[in-house]
Amino acid sequence: MARWEPNARERLASSALDLFAERGYEGTTAAEIAARAGLAKSTFFRHFADKREVLFAGQDLIGEAFAAAMRACPPSATPRELLHAALAAAAFAFGDERRAWVVRRQAVIDDNTELRERELLKRASLTAALESALRERGLGERLAALAAEVGSLAFRGAFARWIAPSNARGYAELAREELDALASAAASLG
Amino acid sequence: MARWEPNARERLASSALDLFAERGYEGTTAAEIAARAGLAKSTFFRHFADKREVLFAGQDLIGEAFAAAMRACPPSATPRELLHAALAAAAFAFGDERRAWVVRRQAVIDDNTELRERELLKRASLTAALESALRERGLGERLAALAAEVGSLAFRGAFARWIAPSNARGYAELAREELDALASAAASLG
DNA sequence: ACGGTGATGAGACCAAGTCCCATCACAGGG
DNA sequence: CCCTGTGATGGGACTTGGTCTCATCACCGT
To answer: Which InterPro entries does the annotation name (chains A, B) (predicted)?
Structure first.
């Protein structure tokens, strides 16, 4: 096995997605993923805490982008403007080049409960990032929690529409639409 | 080992909570839980799909109660009234007798990421129950999704306050308060 | 008393994940 | 040019979660 080839982590992630798509998540062992990447099982677990994580590497970047974007907003910004800015800041993850990869990855996740469970954990972490950034702006407990959930919902909705087969529009535009629609729905709930 | 003693499932659940509280979730093996209940490891997994599930048995009843309560509402009910009815219907799970047990259980869950992850899965299932019941009432996609999240948030908030050490109030009352507070927060977001 | 049913015990087995140690590639200093 | 330190890797032992199969036993109706 040729050691010392670069990008071990990336090779593992890409081998994993390939194998999951072919044989399913449960039908693939960590040792097989490592082998396809030309690495050993122990090396796999040195790069990823567990077998699920290989599909979720880099998720934290989105949460950090959320928080950074909100911190960059003027103090006068309304909750809605903060959310707009946060969601827009995640656009780096949803360029056209990435779409095919993201679609394939999502199909694998949707197909397996264990992976959907991990996705929920990641989503919760994104929502928590929104919530704590909103509280830093002085929002009250409940309003921060609610606004964070609305932001999370808009993010999910925009994501779902972005990866839909029929879609040709950009993520940023979809996110703005989703958020506006949810805000008016919120008004009707009060 | 005395076979055929009744309530194997309950004995397993209670042994599990005891051991988790003593040694932590990760410090406890499934075989140890079974042994304390006077059963074998294979019997444990016959009753619970995995080690985490032993703490979440019966959660689905709450989701079913949500849906049933909404179906029992008059057709004229507003989304807010539907949510009130749903949350109120979950009160059976939060009587005073159960409080000590619930508090102990929650401490164990909060202490372990794996368990928190499973909790998110259960929470998502409750939210989905709310959402699908709301859509049956004719609510649009986004409004149903948003209202379900608000209901879930109110449920979580009421639960957190109910198990707080200083609390002496009942779950139903707390749930109503949380929902009203969130509804007015929602109005301010639109 | 007898056979059927259903819950259990026991143990083999696989894969996830941890751990430890040897090994190798590369870097820099003598 | 050699020597040594550093860091990523390979390899394998080990524990545990989880599955599966088969034998066993308690109870129930006939």
So the answer is: Homeodomain-like_sf, HTH-type_TetR-like_transc_reg, HTH_TetR
A186 to chain B: nearest residue by CA?
B186
The answer, for B147 touching chain A at a CB cutoff of 8 Å, is yes
Give me the residue spans of the domains in chain B.
Answer: 8-54, 58-187
Please report the pLDDT score of residue A190 as a whole number. Answer: 79
Q: What is the pTM of this model?
A: 0.95
Q: Does B118 touch chain A (CB under 8 A)?
A: yes
pLDDT in tens, B40-69: 999 999 999 999 999 999 999 999 999 999
Instruction: In whole angstroms, give the CA distance from residue B65 to residue A30.
Output: 41
What residue has token string 């990823």? A48
Residue B1 burial (10 A CB sphere; 0-12, 13-18, 19+): exposed
The verdict on a CB contact (< 8 Å) between A185 and B146 is yes
With respect to CATH, is domain A8-54 assigned 1.10.10.60?
Answer: yes
CA–CA separation, B63 and A49 (whole Å): 33
| Statement: residue A176 has pLDDT above 80 | yes
Fold of B58-187: Tetracycline Repressor; domain 2 (1.10.357)
Amino acid at position B9, single letter: R
Tens of pLDDT, residue by residue over A144-173, are 999 999 999 999 999 999 999 999 999 999
Looking up tokens 């047990």 gives B101
Q: What is the Cα A27 distance to its own chain's centre?
A: 24
Q: Which residues contact B51 (CB under 8 A, 6 or more apart)?
A: B30, B33
Encode B16-48: b = buried (16+ Cβ within 10 Å), e = exposed. Answer: bbebbeeeebeebebebbbbbbebeeebbeebb
